[in-house]
Design brief:
This protein has two domains: 336 residues, 2-Layer Sandwich (BirA Bifunctional Protein, domain 2), CATH 3.30.930; 93 residues, 3-Layer(aba) Sandwich (Rossmann fold), CATH 3.40.50.800. α1 crosses α10. Helix content is 32%, strand content 27%. The protein binds adenosine-5'-triphosphate and magnesium ion. Adenosine-5'-triphosphate binds next to β8, β13, β16 and α10.
Length: 440
């Protein structure tokens, strides 16, 4: 992409309304625009990052055996009357009437709809296990939308739903998602700690919130410090092997970790001195086994091997990709801007032409641009008339992991400058070496 042809509405001023760093940086970097309270338009740079996050989530969901579908944003109120949640959900639900005066709603989540689909098609234990997910916009009329896309009213969610014959199989499904989540967050450059969460009337301990530590987080959390260095499950883990899954889950639940609402002071005190971490955290994912809570009232039943019909056991598994964009920025930035992990950077490489119009500099930049593009690298070529200082500032603000700085002086000596955004390291290299480094 040539910056001169791109749409990157950078703001030089820090927007007043933004209270936390991720919100400020997302506005300054031209990633999102607020359209009404808690409702955002995603501009090109933001959309690219969002898509890359979704791609990682999708890969790990698919690897674990989940299958992607797409359910609508608008749902019928009747579905929610069946589960009894239409009245319970309260003001967070955006209720709509269509032209025939039928009650509709903008989905805050999809348990009912998924249960309806299961009820229609899944009849036998032989069709199970099944896990269906989609990545779709949700609407929750939050009392206090704030912090930009961190707590918005319209937000993107990956929500998966597992369907199993009984509790034992549902736990295996739960563990699959647990492992997939650990891998997903690690690939996004985050250390997300699974913390015991409330199960309400369902009971049991199969509910975890995945929390990343950040000073601006809304939850107060307590955990063992060793979680910060625990390696995520390997890509090779066999999702069809219940013992391997259980071992990974056991390891990741072996140490103390809880949010304020489930905090057990005595258990936390028992953690050795120096390893007790109390901090603020951001919830980026939540997994939950809810048994027959929806299948029973809605009549989603399968026939077991014994020929007896029974309601299926289900769980739901959410990740917020739009919140993740902000959460990743909270975890990775400096005073100059965003520092994207390579996996989700909007562009992997920036080429900064310090003297547009100079034939040699232009030619070298064009050559680099063509070579990298041909290799499938996402490149942003700054071919604008801006001053060098402003080009450096932009590249750092939007967090390009590699920056190749090209000017007549360096070229005369046969070099370009290669800068690594993460640590600011700069090196003068030949064009070939710079390319090799970036492509390596
Ligand atoms: P919170 O406690 O933060 O309000 P929740 O418990 O209501 O979230 P879930 O229903 O568990 O959220 O939704 C799954 C995921 O969707 C969350 O882990 C989060 O990543 C994301 N999410 C939920 N609400 C919002 C929101 N208002 N804005 C952005 N992302 C959200
Ligand atoms: Mg939650």
């Amino acid at each position: 992409m040539r910056l001169s042809r791109y749409f990157l509405p950078i703001l030089r001023e820090v927007p007043k309304e933004a209270e936390i760093v991720s919100h400020r940086l997302m506005l300054r970097a031209g990633m999102v625009r607020q359209e009404s309270a808690g409702i955002y338009a995603w501009l090109p740079l933001g959309k690219k990052v969002l898509d890359k996050i979704c791609a990682v989530i999708r890969e790990e969901q698919n690897r674990s055996g989940a299958i992607e579908i797409m359910m609508p944003t608008i749902q019928s109120a009747d579905l929610w009357r069946e589960s009894g949640r239409y009245d319970d959900y309260g003001k967070e639900m955006l209720r709509i009437k269509d032209r025939h005066e039928r009650d509709m709603l903008y989905g805050p989540t999809n348990e009912e709809m998924l249960t309806e689909i299961v009820r229609a098609y899944v009849k036998s234990y032989k069709d199970l296990p099944l896990n269906l997910y989609h990545i779709q916009w949700k609407f929750r009329d939050e009392v206090r939308p704030r912090f930009g896309v961190m707590r918005s009213r319209e937000f993107l969610m990956k929500d998966a739903y597992s369907i199993d014959l009984d509790f034992e199989n549902a736990v295996i499904a739960y563990n699959r998602m647990f492992v997939a989540y650990l891998r997903t967050f690690a690939r996004l450059g985050l250390t997300a700690i699974p913390m015991v969460a409330d199960t309400g009337p369902i009971g049991g301990n199969h509910s975890h919130e995945f929390i990343i530590l950040a000073s601006t987080g809304e939850s107060e959390v307590f955990c063992h410090a060793d979680y910060l260095d625990m390696p995520p499950p390997a890509a090779e883990i066999d999702f069809r092997d219940p013992a391997a899954l259980q071992a990974a889950v056991d390891q990741w639940t072996s140490l103390y970790a809880a949010t304020e609402e489930k905090h057990d002071v005595a258990a936390f005190e028992a953690v050795e001195e120096g390893k007790r971490l109390s901090a603020r955290g951001i919830e980026v994912g939540h997994i939950f086994y809810f048994g027959t809570k929806y299948s029973e009232p809605m009549g989603a039943k399968v026939t077991g091997p014994d020929g007896v019909e029974r309601p299926v056991h289900m769980g739901s598994y959410g990740i917020g990709p739009s919140r993740l964009v902000a959460a990743i920025i909270e975890a990775s930035h400096d005073e100059n801007g965003i520092i994207w992990p390579d996996a989700i950077a909007p562009f992997q490489v920036g080429i900064l032409n310090l003297k547009v119009g100079d034939a040699g500099t232009d030619a070298a930049c064009e050559q680099l641009y063509a070579t990298l593009t041909a290799k499938g690298v996402d490149v942003l070529y700054d071919d604008t008339e801006e001053r060098p200082g402003s080009k450096f500032a932009t590249a750092d603000l939007i967090g390009l992991p590699w920056q190749i700085i090209v000017g007549p002086k360096g070229l005369a000596a046969g070099t370009v400058e290669l800068k690594r955004r993460a640590d600011g390291a700069r090196e003068n290299l030949s064009v070939e070496s710079a390319l090799a480094r970036v492509l390596g």
